[in-house]
Amino acid sequence: MTMTDPAQQEQIIGKRRIRREDPKLLSGENRFADDLVVPGALHLVVVRSPHAHARIQRIDVNAAKSMPGVVGVFTGKDLESEWAGPMPCAWPVTAEMKNPAHYPLAVEYVHYAGEGVVAVVARSQVEAVDAAGAVIVDYEELPPVLELEEAVNDTTLAHEELESNTSFVWALEPNPDAVDAAFRDAAVTVSERFVQQRLIPAAMEPRAMVVVPSPMGGDYTVYSSTQIPHVLRVMLALTAGISETKLRVIAPSVGGGFGSKLDVYAEELLCLALARRMRQPVRFTEERGEGTMATIHGRGQVQHIELAANADGKVTAVRVKLLADMGAYLQLVTPGVPLLGAFLYHGVYDVGAYSFTCTGLFTNKTPTDAYRGAGRPEATYAIERAMDSLARRLELDPAEIRRRNFIAAEKFPYQSVAGLVFDSGSYHANLEKALDKAGYSDLRREQEQRRAAGNPRRLGIGVSCYVEMCGLAPSRVLASLNYGAGGWEAATVRILPTSKVQVVTGTAPHGQGHETSWSMIVADKLGISPDDVEVLHSDTAIAPYGMDTYGSRSLSVGGTAVYLATERVIEKAMKIAAHQMEVAEEDLEYVGASFRVKGSPEQQLPLAAIAFEAFTAHNLPDGLEPNLEASISWDPPNFTFPNGTHIAVVEVDEETGHVQLVRYIAVDDCGNQINPLIVEGQVHGGITQGVAQALYEEALYDSSGQLLNASLADYLVPSACEMPSFELDSTVTPSPTNPLGVKGVGEAGTIGSAPAVINAVVDALSDLGVTDCPMPATPERVYQLIKQASSK
Ligand code: MCN
């Protein structure tokens, strides 16, 4: 342990510290699931439905079975006895929430192109792929339901056994009479329809897994590229009917997830069931093209948002009607996506009346689920686009309309009309800082000059302000939403005899730098070097309890658990130090990794000595257990509410419709920052994903339900080359909901950015009369908008 001189104890929290995770990633030392060498592992390849909706008439696996290297070929029927229940969803199936039976392989019907039909297991990947090609499946094609506005009419059904395409209707209408009154009395109203196109997550590492039975039998180690090793273990146990004690789930290095690995996938269940059946390891790695159909999609909503406002632009009511695409089945948290947004459609604004209704609909497309930001980017997009529409109606500047409506800083903690208590924030300060950084008035001047000069490179400035709910979630709140799990997080901190520190966390990082951040929290508290702190995670044998990583919860819930466990260890060490020094605990203070007598700093015992004493246990106070270790499970009292203002500056080429993002300014408030370098990295990634939705990405289907851009050659994922250098800043309003004063940041960039960019595109064309631009703002789409507007 590197001891710090008490007088010079350096604060570690808040410092820009390079991620300890990176050298291994950069040098290729990390091991991802597909890198794991497992002798004798069999390879699973899944034969998938080519149709969006069809009845399976006949499956002939005879030819495939006799192919070289093939060990087994299984249909859905062959594997029926393997399942103790259907594929998991965190919401129970009720009369109010329908979920058609969903098993790892389809049995009678297929409901989306890409659904698994036959599992082929062979000694090598090549042999499995060849044999999969020899499987014959005859289908009777059925009409697919693809569009939400068609699905809601139930003229065609996505699932033959359901009477309707509606999975659930969910309403949050705290004051319906007030909403009606506000619209009746409004000086001005705005009514908009926005489409949240489907997005295909594109983590660097595709999904990969290998299940290894123990040589003794009965126990299985599941290596999976997952964000949720703990939840996965529970769900695998329940679905495959295996005792949880017989399952060890390890997420090795995970090359990104963005929500797409927050799920329990058919292939994870298949590998487990087949390893059990064949008593051999079984592995699966998805191909990129396969993954575009077999891994969940994000977004997929049609939003109707209405604002009522008085003549000054003060919004008096927000009314939202949402159609949300579940895809063919409810996956682990599919219904939770629109529900998360439900509380946030009034955004950062103090509105009196609020109404939200969502219809969750089945279609014959890949299931949707949580994709980075889940529900909150959609809500922010709708309100921030609608606020710009209101500004245009009233001929107000977009910044000014926001100023007039913000929740004022002195109102925090703020009781929102949707039922949440926002913890802290200073929305005005965010906006002013961002405007200042952008040089907003100069930009507006330049815009005017370009317009006056008829410059075909039109300038657009887009403002977007957001608030999100993170730290998902207090367990009691989850219970009230009928969600089948808690929202706590677990941590253990132990100081080993040689005084090195081991931290065990229930979070499961997949690119967020938890090892660096958690080591900083502990080192700061203990007054030691972060290099002396090791962080263990993502292995249920080492960290048996955990709720994993999603919803920007890890720091505010998991980091807090780590912090509190460290505090507890210090409390225990204090007892030992007091006993050794023969003084009362109250007379001791802990400074710079030493316990010292208050007022007599020369009388001190270093933590290292106490750690060794706790190990030998030669002279402990009566009744005190040996060893310095503490475990905590912490349930947060509230969400945290990160917020910010983002400004996008675009140039729209009038002659080609091409949109160039020329500047991007973001001011984010994630409370106290543990590591500003990591915070910036998270914001960079998030902004890029939001810009991607605004300008590039969209899952395109043809009328028969075929995904048309099922490869990275056709599905445009932007890289750093398409992005300007981001101009970042922050405000800090510490969250009172946790002792670190932190809020989440992992999704912030995604939430603020798409509306900022589209507001900028529309702003560039507003003098032509353009009021909307659907996402993504492709050159063709923008060119058509310009052409239509110019011909009016
Ligand atoms: N942090 C900080 N100070 C703050 C807030 C956060 O120093 N005030 C640091 C944390 O210590 C942590 C990181 O920022 O190292 C992110 O913390 P947090 O905001 O708690 O978010 P999570 O770790 O829970 O990550 C969740 C979020 C989600 S939901 C997805 S999806 C996501 C993401 O973050 N997927 C990612 N970031 C990703 N980043 C990468 N590289 N890859 C992914 O797949």
From TrEMBL:
Entry-linked InterPro entries: Ald_Oxase/Xan_DH_a/b (IPR000674), Ald_Oxase/Xan_DH_a/b_sf (IPR036856), Ald_Oxase/xanthine_DH-like (IPR016208), AldOxase/xan_DH_MoCoBD1 (IPR008274), AldOxase/xan_DH_MoCoBD2 (IPR046867), AldOxase/xan_DH_Mopterin-bd_sf (IPR037165)
EC identifiers of the protein: 1.2.99.2
Top-rank lineage group of the source organism: Bacteria
Domain Aldehyde oxidase/xanthine dehydrogenase a/b hammerhead: 27-143
Gene3D superfamilies in UniProt: Aldehyde oxidase/xanthine dehydrogenase, a/b hammerhead, Aldehyde oxidase/xanthine dehydrogenase, molybdopterin binding domain
Principal EC category: oxidoreductase
Keywords on record: Molybdenum, Oxidoreductase
GO MF annotation terms: iron ion binding; oxidoreductase activity
SMART domains: Ald_Xan_dh_C
PANTHER family listed in its UniProt record: ALDEHYDE OXIDASE 1-RELATED, XANTHINE DEHYDROGENASE
The protein, known as: Carbon monoxide dehydrogenase large chain
Organism: Ferrimicrobium acidiphilum DSM 19497
High-level lineage: Bacteria, Bacillati, Actinomycetota, Acidimicrobiia, Acidimicrobiales
